[in-house]
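Below is one protein, fold included:
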Amino acid sequence: MIGELALIIIALAVVAFVVFLIPLIFEIKKTLERFNLFMDRTEGQLLPTMEELRGTLNNMKAITEDVESVTHNVREISTVLEDTTKTLYGVRDFLYNIQKETNATIAGLREGFKTGLMVFIKNLTTKGGG
């Protein structure tokens, strides 16, 4: 008798479980349908956004390439300016050295002319007058 009673209790528990499980399965099915609907809507809205994002990325790529080109040109200009500056410093140093040499030569010539003139005058006065 206890075995039959246990069997009846188990049978009732299985029936109660099935009765509870059937609505749960229907709720899970409805939830999955709503989730699929949500995913379809999201995908429909996401595709245009992704296309717009691709366009934006392409624009950014073009801008980046333009900036790289300008940067390259600025580097070239900077290099040319640096070379020009070095050349101008060289020309300045060259002209400064020429000026120093010219000034020294002129000073030497002036002193030589002055000394020569004084010797000439002294010789004139000494020989011619004496």
